[in-house]
Amino acid sequence: MQTSLHINIHYTISHDVVLQDYATLAPGVHFSGHVHLGKIVYVGTGAVFINGSGEKPIMTGYDAAIVAGDCVTDSIPPNETWGVPAKPLK
């Protein structure tokens, strides 16, 4: 099965990280452990995901967007755009 990801430069991906199809990582994105990125998720430049856990990974839903410079500390529902600090934008 072929997948499609767009991953830019200067990123780190730690343990137990799942990246689903059509995710886009802008430059400088960093994932700590236990993070699951849903399909068609956009992660802006310099966004950071802190550690989730094996029992409760940090999850991003389908077609979510995380803006540049965000620090994600909790799961993000589908079809939402989160700003700085990491909370839903209205």
Summarize it.
This protein is mostly beta strands and 90 residues long.
Would you kindly provide a written description of the structure presented here, covering whatever features stand out?
- The protein has no helices and twelve strands.
- The mean pLDDT is 92.
- The chain is globular.
- The N and C termini lie far apart (37 Å).
- With 90 residues, the protein is mainly β.
- It has a single domain (6-82), classed as 3 Solenoid (UDP N-Acetylglucosamine Acyltransferase, domain 1).
How would you summarize the topology of this molecule?
Blueprint: E1 6-7, E2 12-13, E3 17-19, E4 24-25, E5 30-31, E6 35-37, E7 42-43, E8 48-49, E9 58-60, E10 65-66, E11 71-72, E12 81-82
Parallel strand pairs: 1-4, 2-5, 3-6, 4-7, 5-8, 6-9, 7-10, 8-11, 10-12
* Poorly predicted segments: none
Number of helices: 0
What spatial form do the alpha-carbon principal axes imply? globular
Following the backbone from N to C, one meets helices and strands in this order, namely EEEEEEEEEEEE
Helical content (DSSP H or I, runs of 4+): under 10%
CATH first level: which class? Mainly Beta
Strand arrangement across the biggest beta sheet: 1-4-7-10-12
- What is the straight-line distance between the termini? 37 Å
CATH architecture: 3 Solenoid
Mean pLDDT: 92
How many domains in all?
Answer: 1
* Major sheet attributes: 5 strands, parallel
Number of beta strands: 12
